Each structure stands twice: as structure tokens, then as C-alpha cells.
Amino acid sequence: MLSRIFRAIAYLAIVLACLLQLAAANVEKEIFLGPPASTDPDVSLAGHLVPQLASSEHCSNCRAIRTRLNTSFVGKGVEHWVRVNGLEEGRRYEVRICWAATQPTDFTLDLFTPDQVLRDSALLEGILAYPQDGAVQEISGSKLYLRVLAKTAYVSSQKSRMENPEPVDVDIILDPYFLNVVPESLLKIIPIIVMVAVFAWWVGGWIHRALLDFAVKSAAAEKKHR
Predict the structure, then answer these.
(1) How many domains does the chain have?
(2) Percent of the chain with pLDDT over 70
(3) Nearest 5°: phi and psi at 214?
(4) Is 41 part of any domain?
(5) Structural domain of residue 109, as residue ranges?
(6) CA 120, CA 202: separation in Å to the nearest integer?
(7) Is residue 127 part of a domain?
(8) Cα–Cα distance between 205 and 218 in angstroms, integer?
(9) Which residue, among 126, 135, 14, has the nearest Cα to 76 in the 3D structure?
(10) Among residues 85, 5, 80, which one has the least CA distance to residue 37?
(11) CB–CB of 139/147 below 8 Å?
(12) Cross-strand partners of 142
């Protein structure tokens, strides 16, 4: 009986270990509501060629970009810009940046409307000075500009690594919320979480009954031998 119990525990541990593989990276995120579309015709000229998000496999409405960002030990880090367009006014979104735990980096995410960019000369200069992307796809809806500050977060005994920090590979993902409650990318794994919870509840009850039965039989056997 004990072998069956240990086998059930092992199966549950394997399932949980598989799920933990989903969290094999660091994540920094911002949750926000889609802003109203700007009516200023000059807004579209600001950061028009800044890299933007494309269709993603994370969910049907998700968009993402996979890129390599330079980092620095100086100040708040290196400034990067991404254009986030196609937003619905009032809808909840989550924008997150994911990177490998083997590349220690501190990221700071800030979102700005086009109007804020045009009113702030420092932001506008930062966007216009950022390397331009010729592949532009216009998507209906409002837009925001995502500023990513990448600061190196490791210490190395190698002088070359300290003087020239290595770039970090990242995924930047825009994830809309379903009914403004849960990110759409989680809809695929919610059934898995439910099944694991039900399985764990069933296994836990079975183990409890088996151990209780084992204890009762052991106590009866011990009493019989007295």
C-alpha cells in the first residue's frame, strides 16, 4: 500500500514540476487601461518608425517582439522604445518583459501617450534618437509608447564584462485582459490548473484514507499481539 502512495505522490510531483517550467524566466510588467485615441494629426509623426509589436503565439489578440537590448551599469540603464498600438479605449492590458534568469538585469517600464511625448522635449528627443524600424504596420486604435530602461544587475570578476555589459535577450508581450479580469494568455492554462487542482484534491483524499486505514490496521495488529 505504501508503494502505491509513494507512486501517487511521485506522479503529482512530476505534474507540478512540468508546470514550474512555465516560470523559468524573470518578468517585469505594467498593467494599464487603453487610452482614448489622440486627435492631434502631428502625434502620428512622433516615433512613427519606433519598433512595434507584432502578432504573437501567446494568444490570438496578443502582440510581442523578441529582441536584444543593450544594458549599462550607469544611471538607470540604457533607454529603449517600443510603440504599442491597436489599443481599445478602457480595456485592461498587461505589457510585460521576459528575460532569462541567467542574464541578470533590472528593467523599468514606463508608458506614455503620444500627447505626453510631444509635450516633453526629453521624451521626444529620446524617441527620435532611437534606431528606427522601417517595417511599420498601422493598426487601428489608440497607441502608447513604452520606454524600457535596462540596467545591468550582475557583478563579475572579469574586467571586460564589467566594462562592456552583455546585451540581454528579451520578449516584450502585450496581453489584453479577457473581460478586463484575466489575461487572455492564461485562458489556455486555466483548464490545466483546474485539472491539477482536482487531481491533487483526489490524490490528497486517497492518501489520507490510505494512511488512516494503514494506521487503524497497524493499531489493531499491535493490540492483537499484546
Answers:
(1) 1
(2) 80
(3) -65, -40
(4) yes
(5) 25-185
(6) 58
(7) yes
(8) 20
(9) 126
(10) 85
(11) no
(12) 87
87, 176 Cβ separation under 8 angstroms: no
pLDDT, tens digit (0-9, with 9 covering 90-100), for 126-174: 988 888 775 666 677 888 999 999 999 988 888 888 889 999 999 999 9
56 found inside a domain: yes
Q: Are 149 and 108 in contact (CB under 8 A)?
A: yes
Let me know if residue 103 belongs to a domain: yes
- The DSSP annotation for the chain comes to -HHHHHHHHHHHHHHHHHHHGGG-EEEEEEEEEPPPPP--TTGGGTTTTS-B-EE-SS-TT-EEEEEEE--BSSTT-EEEEEEEEEEPTT-EEEEEEEEETTS-EEEEEEEE-HHHHHH-HHHHHHHHHSPP-S-----SSEEEEEEEEEEE----S-HHHHHSPPPEEEEEEEEEEETTTEEGGGTTTHHHHHHHHHHHHHHHHHHHHHHHHHHHHHHHHHHHH-
